[in-house]
Amino acid sequence: MKVAIVGEIHESGWEILKNENFDIIDVKNFHEENLIEELKDVEGILLRTSKLEKNVLLHCKKLKIIARHGVGYDNVDLDYLNQNGIALGITGTSNSVTVAEYVMTAFLFLARKTKYADTLVKEGNFKNKKTLPEFYELYKKNILICGFGRIGKAVAKRCLGFDSNVYVFDPLVDKKEIEKAGCISIEKKEGIKIADYITLHLPLNDKTKNFISKQEFELCKNSAIIVNAARGGIVNEEDLVDALKNKKIQAVALDVFEQEPPPEDHPIFKFENVLLSPHNSALTLECRKRMAIESSETISSYLKDKSNLNLNNIINKKYLEI
Question: Which of 4, 66, 207, 268 is most buried, judging by how many CB atoms fall within 10 Å of its CB?
Fold first, then answer.
């Protein structure tokens, strides 16, 4: 059986597929014409960040499963997979801790104004620490977590360790489950109004597009810090730039962008109270290894022995015969 790896993965994932004697195709050219040619007779695809849209999938006549190296899947035409009985897997247990650690890093870096203190010392101005801007704690502050899946829960656990007040907006999660985790269920507008820190852990879809935009920025405390490590487009970047210009919020961290990579002249690059990263919040060495293993095991189990398959990792199982 042929399996394609579309994008670079940790060698541990390669080893699993090799040990199962799959015929592995290493796809490094992600242009549509090449994807059509290389994927036309594979039964499984391990996918990093390249797009697999209908006009490519139409040519994949033998395809049975796509396993995402991560938890997001907006780069795959899910409707086509559902209509054609093709499974979509994610690495549901691999990256929650890693992204949660990124969120805490961003909160602390921006709240404590770490960049300014570091620059002060390196420039020989150690004695001038009184010139540094005010900086803040997480202790007893209000944290709003939007989206209470595995990552949201991992963030909550860490915020509770700082004795923060953790509020959760997620209409798809029962209030009792939120309270059981030591958090407080809250509606979106009320949560935004009281939040000192906001972190987003939502999928990108029609309901979450521009989830944070001009209206929400108007509700924010001007001391609020926002982190988006979910998907670009959940925060409206044009409105975000306006909010930063008008000091509607204190700071923002973005690991994701509406356009990736963002344009070189993106106006957000001009602000000092912004922390940016190249969609790599989940890419620690440990997490890359876990994701490679988990996605490879999903492909192997689905194609060879479904009794070992983690069904929680299959997004569209109701459309499949498993």
Answer: 66
